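Hi, here's the filled form for the chain we discussed.

Project: internal
Contact: R.S.
Residues: 267
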Amino acid sequence: MDLGLYIEAVLRQPLSYFIHSQSGGIGSAHSDSIWRHASSLHETLERRVAARAESVIVFNPEYAATVSGWNHNTLGSPTWYDPDVFRPGPERDTHHIVWAGRLEPPKDPILALQTFEQLVMRDPAPPWTLTMVGAGTLEGKVRDARAALPDSISSRITVTGGLPPNELAGIMGSGGTFLMTSHPGYEGFSMTLVESMASGLVPIVTEGSDTGGLVSADVGSICSRDPSALADALLGASRKDRQLVCERVNKLRADIIVSQVLAAAGS
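And the returned structure, exactly as it came back:
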């Protein structure tokens, strides 16, 4: 928003404005943005920028309906995945859980560790593993929290740091389940969720994470923030239809969505 305001007010250049969060998401209590300390001001300025933009693209269905009242040239768009990168691999470890995202408060990576601890304590015999991909200000806390777990649990957890898309795709393509622990009110239309489903991972997400309505009972689970409930969902993930998971996001390929977005931005 602040960059858009500068372009509109100071440079006075034509602007296509992209919004990737929910209404009030940047200023929410769990946001990692400095604007969380001035959420009302952010909302006021964002409304000004959106209203004066030549076009607005909103990656959140509910917020798009609101923004269209400020600017009639508003497109509510899903996000997309690159089918040349993210796709199911030839072999799959159904006991391998993948978590991917910024290691920041809105994503709550510590909840992922708590959930995995519950899972292994409840069902220790299978070769459960958790791979956490991402970087951020909480990386040190995540590594410390992993180290504080019993060896029988911590030895199953890998924290990779940030990875390029092709390496993330390799992990997703061979995994079993995708665990998403974001706080409600922040996610726009999660690209990582789309990429994981395109890779065939069964999605287990917290309430408020799946703003695009991709996850239903036949392909995954939407859970409370209780680690025990999330662990239960992980235990039941093997019963989900992985082909249906992939089909659910097939129309979100980059070759379909990106052209629509660029056409709207350039109109």
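Let me know if anything looks off before we file it.
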